[in-house]
C-alpha cells in the first residue's frame, strides 16, 4: 500500500498535488460565492467578528501562522495565532464577536479540543479545519472546513499541512467575501492562482532528486538551521520540525530578520542553513533576505537557498540553489515546504531511522 515508495511519508508527499486540488474542489463557482461545508455560523454573525484567533499544535500551528498573514491581508480583521497548549492558560479575551479557528489533521488532539471547549464557554464561535471526518474536534465546533488530503499514515504531517494551508486561504477569502472586503472577480483571481499550485508542487516533486543528493551531502550534520521571512518564517519552522522529529538532530527555524538579534552568533564554518527567499516585490522582503544570506555566508555558513525562478540576486551566495516556481508571496509556502519535507525524509532514511514512526511520537496526541 506504499505504492512503490519506501515510506508512507514519501507517498504522502507525492500525493500533495491532489491533496491541494481536492481541498479546493467544489468550493467555488466562477463569479459565484465560495461554499464551505458545515458552516453553522451565519453571515450576519461572521460580519460581526472583530477578532480571529487561530489555534493549533505542531505542524498545524505553522499552518495557523500562515493563516494569520492571509486573514489579516485579505479580511483586514485582527488575527492572533496561539499554541493550543498555551491558549487557555493566559486568560484570553474572548466574546461572541471572536472567531476561534482551530486546525487539526487528526481531529483528536487533546490540547486543541480543550481550547475549543474553553472558547465556547466564553461564547466565542469556533470553526475547525480538519482532515478527519467524524472526529471529535469537528463534532464540537460550530463550523467545519474539511481538508481533503486523504488519510495520513506517516506520523509526520505533510499532505495534511498543505491541505490545511489551502483551507486557511479559503476561509480567509470566505470571510473577506462576507465582510465585503473582496468581490467575486478578485476572489476568482486568487483562486485561479491557488488552482495552479498543484502543478508547482508536482514540479518540486519531479525535482526531488536534488534533495536526495543534498541529504547525502549533508549527512553527518548535527545541526541545521532554517531562515524565512513573512510566510517563509513558518515554512522555516516547519522545515526544522520535520528534521527534528525524523532525524533526531538539532534543527531550528528563525525569522531571518531576527538573525542579528542573536541567532547569528551560532553561525560557524560549514553550518548548513536553509534560506527561503520571498518573491521579489512588496516590502523589499527579497532584498532583505538576500542580505541575510550574505551575512551568514560571510561567517562560513553553507547556504541552501530556495528562491523563485529568475531570482539571480541569490546566485553568488548560494552553495546550493533550489528553484521554486513563481507564485504570489502569500502562496509560496505551498511550494517551498515540499523540498524541505523531501529533505527531512531522505536525511532520516539515510541515517537508518524509521521515517514513518519516529521514536517517541504518536500520530494523535490525545493527552495534554
Ligand atoms: C508534525 C506533526 C505534529 C502534529 C501535531 C498536531 O509532523 O505531525 O506536530 O502536527 O501533533 O496534530 P493535529 O493536526 O492532528 O492536531
UniProtKB/TrEMBL annotation:
Keywords: Aminotransferase, Cytoplasm, Glutamine amidotransferase, Repeat, Transferase. It catalyses: D-fructose 6-phosphate + L-glutamine = D-glucosamine 6-phosphate + L-glutamate. The keyword Repeat applies. GO terms for cellular component: cytosol. It is found in: Cytoplasm. GO terms for molecular function: carbohydrate derivative binding; glutamine-fructose-6-phosphate transaminase (isomerizing) activity. The active site is at 363 (for fru-6p isomerization activity). GO terms for biological process: carbohydrate metabolic process; fructose 6-phosphate metabolic process; protein N-linked glycosylation; UDP-N-acetylglucosamine metabolic process. The keyword Cytoplasm applies. Its EC number is 2.6.1.16. Homodimer. Catalyzes the first step in hexosamine metabolism, converting fructose-6P into glucosamine-6P using glutamine as a nitrogen source. This is Glutamine--fructose-6-phosphate aminotransferase [isomerizing]. It comes from Aeromicrobium chenweiae. The gene is glmS. The chain holds residues 247 to 614 of 614 of the full protein.
